[in-house]
């Protein structure tokens, strides 16, 4: 007896978007275009939903067509050059985000630590976060009467 192969089931709309993009491989679709074609309307919540659908399509290995994204929107990859260029761009972007993440993480980890000042304008501590004190605070006086009622005064 053969075992049944289990595949991930998507909502029908996911397959509809996949089929639309794959039916015109060279055509770029913006999220707004896809929302108008699939939902018949466009708004920020539909934009978010469409981006989630595209992400689902891109990450599912059973849907084999490579969907690439760019400033123009999304499209099915047409040739090896497009895929290689997309991979290079994606790796560069990921490395940039990674570098920025660790730089901020290091700075934040040093926040408020003591250090030796370098030069006469340097501080004694690292100041990675510029904390703002609230100067517009209002003092409120609360008094309780003999009957137990509270009165507030400014």
Overview of this structure, please?
The chain has a domain at about 10-100: Arc Repressor Mutant, subunit A. It contains 4 helices and 4 strands, in the order H-H-H-E-E-H-E-E. The chain has helices spanning about 10-25, 30-40, 45-60, 80-110; strands spanning about 65-70, 75, 140-145, 150-154. The strands form 2 sheets. Strands 1-2 form a two-stranded antiparallel sheet. It is flat. The relative contact order is 0.09.
Write a concise keyword list for the protein shown above.
single chain, 154 residues, mainly alpha, Arc Repressor Mutant, subunit A, two-stranded antiparallel ribbon, two-stranded antiparallel sheet, 4 helices
CATH topology of the domain at 12-101: Arc Repressor Mutant, subunit A
Question: Can you tell me the CATH class of the domain at 12-101?
Answer: Mainly Alpha
Strand order of the largest sheet: 1-2
CATH architecture of the domain at 12-101: Orthogonal Bundle
What is the count of DSSP helices, taking H or I runs of 4+ residues? 4
pLDDT < 50 stretches:
none
| Gyration radius over CA | 28 Å
Distance between the termini: 82 Å
- What's the pLDDT, averaged over the residues? 88
Helix content: 40-55%
The main sheet comes to: 2 strands, antiparallel
Shape: flat
Structural class of the secondary structure composition? mainly alpha
N-to-C SSE string, H for helix and E for strand: HHHEEHEE
Q: What's the β-strand tally?
A: 4
Q: How big a fraction of the residues is strand?
A: 5-15%
């Amino acid at each position: 007896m053969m075992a049944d192969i289990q595949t991930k089931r998507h909502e029908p709309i996911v397959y509809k978007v996949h089929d639309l993009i794959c039916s015109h491989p060279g055509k770029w679709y913006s999220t707004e275009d896809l929302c108008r074609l699939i939902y018949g309307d466009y708004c920020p919540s539909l934009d978010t939903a469409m981006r989630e659908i595209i992400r689902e399509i891109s990450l599912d290995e059973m849907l084999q067509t490579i969907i690439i994204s760019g400033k123009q929107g999304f499209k099915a990859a047409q040739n090896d050059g497009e895929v290689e260029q997309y991979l290079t761009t994606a790796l560069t972007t990921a490395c940039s985000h990674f570098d920025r993440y660790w730089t901020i993480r290091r700075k934040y980890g040093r926040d408020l630590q003591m250090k030796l000042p370098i030069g006469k304008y340097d501080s004694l501590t690292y100041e990675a976060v510029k904390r703002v004190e609230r100067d517009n605070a209002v003092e409120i006086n609360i008094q309780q009467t003999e009957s137990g009622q509270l009165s507030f005064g400014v």
